[in-house]
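Methods, example record. To illustrate the input and output format used throughout this study, we show the complete record for GRF-type domain-containing protein. The sequence lines were provided to the predictor; the line carrying structure tokens was produced by it.
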Amino acid sequence: MRDFSFIPHVFRKFAMDSEFADGESFGIEVIIDDAKDKKAPCCPHGPALLFEKVCKGEQQGRRFYACSACRDRKDCSFFQWEDEKVSEARLMAREQFNQSKQPPFTHQEYCSRFKEFVSLPLNKRRFCQECQLLLLAEECSEHAAHRALADDITVARLRRPSLLLRPLENKKSNAQYLFADRSGHFLLDLLASLGFRKVLCVGTPRLHELIKIRNQEGGSEVLKSLLLDIDFRYAQFYSQEEFCHYNMFNHHFFDREQAEAVFSAFLREEDCEKVIMVTDPPFGGLVKPLAHSFSRVSGAWKTLQTPEKSSQEMPMVWIFPYFFETRILECFPSFSMLDYQVDYDNHPLYKHGKTGRKQSPVRLFTNLCPRDIVLPEEEGYRLCPTCERYVSSGNRHCPACDACTSKDGREWRHCAQCKKCVKPSWLHCAACDRCALPDHPCGRGPAGCFTCGSLEHKRRACPRAVRHRDHRQGQAAGRRPGANLSKHPAGRATGRKGKSSARRSKRRT
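The corresponding predicted structure is encoded as:
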């Protein structure tokens, strides 16, 4: 299934309509190119991503830049054609706009404010729920009309900012789903048992605070943690060595060199302190830019290792729904998916203890050895001696596939015609020669190449598309920007306009 969840709003409705009404006649692809990334224009969320709009059967598409973090132009309206010439005045206005959207205080100022806030008597501490801000004594009058939280803002509560802050709920930009304590403590126990002493928490604030709380409680070996998150509100609670304002979709540090120095220092494995990255990205995000950012994190880790370890991969745990498995493994072939079901406090569906199709679809993808990861037997997980890994109770070993094949927690069945295991609700369709739901529309075969229609490959591997990319790169240096591209929005028929112009010229003569 083509992923439209991250397409900028200006194209999304047209893309969805074309995909289903016209037989996949329109699509958007994100372009990853390190050379172009360095020249990408910026919006308030850092360097924009480069996309390409492609029509079925056409080799050449139109490229444009859009925000990396927001899926709706109501949240971030940035848009620029790749070949568009931008005036100096517009560049200056854009820079001023980007600055106006940054946090009201620097990280250092937030840290100073926190120290002053903690020094206040308990009955003087206020947290503005509307502004999501810890208030100093002289600021309370300014927020008098706002709803403030004033009951027992103790140091213990300040140690759990994810419970104090209101979770962001915009599903098209920055929706936050926080680990339930069950999943958070399981991850923490797992990492400690595997000997890791540094945890890079990318978009996992709940895990970060659990690590800090356990360190303060004592009784176990101390783990160091660094939180990278796009939610700048956490700067109120953590020092510059504990938190970096970061966009995982473009590997952008908002505090630039200072934050990058903290990041690099954390990755150094001194005194045998093994580092691991744990990330829980927004489920609506594209896998490709996320994987590119995580590869850059791994690359930074490699440069800091000894020569004998420089060829290894940085240990990672990527938390994502199981139906993204194919895309994740395309980017990280060394990864494997574990059966552990991750649940969240504030998600209406992704809860532990449900059965059937209502189970949480969120899993752990990791380059750690599955044999070393012990899942809790009290929750029904068991060791498969053949696969040498822990699986869910409903995941039965298939002798024909020689694997435990279930992805969603239910027991799958083997289809002899398809020569693979399928979901229990699927039946083999003789007309389609594949397994599908009983009420599926017959005649729709598997999707093939978007450019040439072949079922043997996808667009990214199409020989025609590869030849076109090579041709584009070869001509880029000598081509006048925009020489072969319409100046009208993508998808509008240019031939029709040409005929209208010809008719007007004919009338004038």
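Annotations derived from this record:
The first helix runs from residue 9 to 21.
The chain has a mean pLDDT of 82.
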